[in-house]
Amino acid sequence: MPSDAPAQITINEREYALVIRRHARARNIRLRTDPAKRALLITLPGHARLGEAIAFARAQADWIEASFARAGAHVAIEPGALIPYRGADHRIVWDVGQGRRVSIADGVIRLGGAADLIDTRLTRWLKAEAKRLCAADLAEYCARAGVPTPSLAISNAARRWGSCSANGTIRINWRLVMAPDAVRRSVVAHEVAHLRHMNHSADFYAWLDTLFEGDRKSADHWLKAHGRGLYLVGGG
Length: 236
Description:
single chain; 236 residues; alpha/beta; 3 domains; 11 strands; 37% helix; 23% strand; globular
């Protein structure tokens, strides 16, 4: 962000965090919203002035409000809140007698410990669950593919559900632990398919359809329809 850029901006009496980046190859001012952080992300061409960025954002007031409305409301990780886990909503219950252990049963996620650390501890638990589930998925799909199981990393990417690097490391977004199992598994299978085809060719999708047991188009549709909502749970 330019050193003179404000950290926040008020538009139509609503406050948003403001992130401004300059990009030498950008030809126009570009604006995106980040509902999870209630932020406006503005990319500026190298020649543009900060004042132009702010004026551009203010001129898009109606679009900004509509974008946040489509994304839905932020869900705080706190006692009483409903958060998704493996595709089903679960109620968070804080039980002083529970201790530090997190347990889950019958639509309830129960934990004790310090009440002011619920967000931190439950997010840590969700990430650990994501790694446990994705590790099992990865081992299964690699066995089907007849390839060694590569390293797995759980990511906090802002816009990607999964990736496969040139060295074979697979990264899966931890928020997929909140999605239905078939959706999470489709992403893992997608990245395993990249171990053979580092592209999105017809051969890649044919191989993916051999590996993945479900309907990948339905899984993709679910992510397009509901994926942004997963970013609205907790602080990340």
